[in-house]
Automatic annotation (TrEMBL):
PANTHER family cross-referenced by the UniProt entry: 1,3-BETA-GLUCANOSYLTRANSFERASE GAS1, 1,3-BETA-GLUCANOSYLTRANSFERASE GAS2
Localization annotation: Cell membrane
Family matches, as InterPro entries: GH, Glucanosyltransferase
Function: Splits internally a 1,3-beta-glucan molecule and transfers the newly generated reducing end (the donor) to the non-reducing end of another 1,3-beta-glucan molecule (the acceptor) forming a 1,3-beta linkage, resulting in the elongation of 1,3-beta-glucan chains in the cell wall.
Any one GO molecular function term: 1,3-beta-glucanosyltransferase activity
Gene transcribed to yield this protein: gas2
Cited Pfam families: Glyco_hydro_72
GO cellular component, one term: side of membrane
Main location as per UniProt: membrane
Annotated source species: Lachnellula occidentalis
Name of the molecule in the record: 1,3-beta-glucanosyltransferase
Keywords, in A-Z order: Glycoprotein, GPI-anchor, Lipoprotein, Membrane, Signal, Transferase
Amino acid sequence: MFGLLQAALLLSTAIASVAVTALPTISVKGAKFFADGRQFFIKGVAYQGTPSDPLVDTTQCQLDAKAMQSIGTNSIRVYHANPLANHDGCMAAFRAAGIYIWLDLDTFNTTIVQTSPTWTREQFFAFAAVMDAFQHYDNLAGFWIGNEVINDPTGSPAAPYVKAAVADMKAYMSSQNYRTIPIGYSAADIAALRPMLQNYLVCGDGAQSIDFFGLNSYEWCGDSTYETSGYANLQRLAAGYPVPIFFSETGCNVPPQRTFGDQVAIFGREMAGTWSGSIIYEWVQETNDYGLVTYPGGQIYSGTPVPVQPDFDTLARVWRGIEMTGVREKDYRATLSAPPCPEASEGWGVDGDVPVPTLGRVVVMAAVAAAASSVKPSASEMAMSTSSGASSISASSSASASLSSTSILPTAPTATTSPQPSLAAAGVAATTTSKAAGSRVVVPVGILWMLGLMI
């Protein structure tokens, strides 16, 4: 009897703990994010210092979450995760710290590639596996359909493939009766594509449109101002955007000892009515010197994080000085309309609302059936090899990409040099690209979901 009573008490304590740490889910209404009826603004950090899944070591996540919480972080961005791994411990650790996760659906070798764009069954089933693995966590804020798929001015023909992926993943989410989780896109800051890309991704059929737009921008450097940084122009182009828009990477480190002055503008009167916050690049110190913390012995994710000063305290001070209230959901009216699809021009290669290459209902329902029957590939089948094609962006990770046999991520090249400063930082306000770890390959290869490939 005593044993049963003790077990019951332990169970009730666990249930109470879960109730206390539960977070309201993030939703989109018009151009705003909301959580529990209140507007949600992102104060985030990029959290992926190596190609390996950072959401599998519960103890490490607890240590990092505590340090992040101390500076006011409410979000992290994770670029790649292994759907075969168990993420319960890490997701709970970040939930307890009040931190949401913004997660990419692609892996290193399932991303859409601008030089030879495809949206295949392989890619779709791989994206679905990630969605299945994370959709039940209440602190999963949103999914990224891609990060800088288009990363130079000639890449716009890949945009319809991005919309096709959005359409099929939304259809899959609905068919699985999952909660409505926002799906967005993270863009390189390419002047030649402004504002065509952001407008194209929300024009036309809403079933194919993104729910939020992220911009990777490193334009505000040192003692820049709202006007001299180029942010005034970014605000002008974003005004009236019908879905939430925010900085999915920011934090120029030229010169060193960052001021994070852009945060005051992003959360201030000039931009807060349009922008929903920002994600600082990055949490982990690498060879590119963007990190906010290091780890004992110089090994990434190896214990209690050690603040990189003065940047860590500077960001904490800036964020503490920002108090956002926003608008209550019940008082907000979504009145902004989607823009027309841009016509083809010198800087844009997609002519209007063209048909997008969705896979369609048959493939979507096959994925639903596969998930219901738990027909999934083995770890060896998921560990796909990459082609010999060159990466379309430089890798920022200085760590080895040697992965466990259960990882779906392929071996990626180790970065030997830090990424070059953004063009904006060098005085050319034209293009900035993601500093995120990892590489992109030309063609996704290997078997992901056997059932999907037999369709």
